[in-house]
């Protein structure tokens, strides 16, 4: 009888640990983010508005992800698609980010003039692996809120750099880029 109780307790501990491991990202109202639902990605700290896109000089990928200059702007809604089947968006899971009107976010090649790695919208959704490794971002907990991170784990044989996504300001444009200073964000259902 005691071994049956031990097995039950071990199983219960495993289930409890597994549920804790898939903690969902939550919106400003404390509700879990859901796959396929649109959310505004908003800054926690003042200094700009929500996320949107601008046309860039890059001819291969003409749209760059930026933080709107106006603090009153909520930006363009974003949908999240996890690399694993999940209705909720788990913390620290590979995700495709997609503006409702544009393609999937991706980490663009390094910009030679600024030596920065910018986030653009020329990615391809789904298909986790070597060909799409630059299209996967994560939402991590950060100082009671969240940050976006580029650290894809969808390819076992790929060597990737892991960095936070922050804001690079040049000529009044607040472009999202790899950074040592993450943009602290929160999410509001659109």
Explain how this protein is built:
The chain is mainly beta and 190 residues long. The chain has one domain (37-189): Trefoil (Trefoil (Acidic Fibroblast Growth Factor, subunit A)). Helices cover 11% and strands 38% of the residues. It contains 1 helix and 12 strands; from the N terminus they run H-E-E-E-E-E-E-E-E-E-E-E-E. The strands form 3 sheets. Strands 1, 2, 3, 8, 9, 10, 11 and 12 form an 8-stranded antiparallel β-sheet that branches. Strands 4-5 form a two-stranded antiparallel ribbon. Strands 6-7 form a two-stranded antiparallel ribbon. A hairpin with a 2-residue loop joins strand 10 (163-170) and strand 11 (173-179). The termini are far apart. Residues 1-20 have low confidence and may be disordered. InterPro entries: Kunitz_inhibitor_STI-like_sf (IPR011065), Prot_inh_Kunz-lg (IPR002160). GO terms for molecular function: endopeptidase inhibitor activity. Keywords: Signal. This is Miraculin.
Keywords:
190 residues, mainly beta, Trefoil (Acidic Fibroblast Growth Factor, subunit A), eight-stranded antiparallel β-sheet, two-stranded antiparallel sheet, 1 helix, globular, Miraculin, signal
């Amino acid at each position: 009888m005691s071994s049956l109780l031990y097995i039950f307790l071990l199983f219960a501990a495993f289930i409890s640990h597994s549920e804790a491991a898939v903690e969902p990202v939550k919106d400003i109202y404390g509700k879990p983010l859901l796959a396929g639902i649109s959310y505004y990605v908003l800054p926690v700290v003042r200094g700009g508005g929500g996320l949107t896109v601008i046309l860039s000089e890059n001819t291969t990928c003409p749209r760059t992800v930026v933080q709107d200059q106006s603090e009153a702007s909520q930006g363009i809604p974003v949908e999240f698609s996890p690399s694993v089947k999940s209705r909720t968006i788990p913390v620290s899971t590979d995700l495709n980010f997609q503006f409702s009107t544009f393609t999937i976010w991706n980490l663009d090649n390094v910009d030679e003039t600024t030596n920065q790695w910018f986030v653009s919208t020329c990615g391809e959704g789904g298909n986790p692996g070597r060909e799409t490794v630059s299209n996967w971002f994560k939402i991590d907990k950060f100082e009671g809120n969240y940050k976006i991170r580029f650290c894809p784990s969808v390819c076992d044989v790929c060597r990737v750099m892991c960095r936070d996504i922050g804001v690079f300001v040049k000529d009044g444009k607040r472009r999202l880029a790899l950074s040592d200073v993450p943009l602290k964000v929160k999410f509001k259902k659109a």
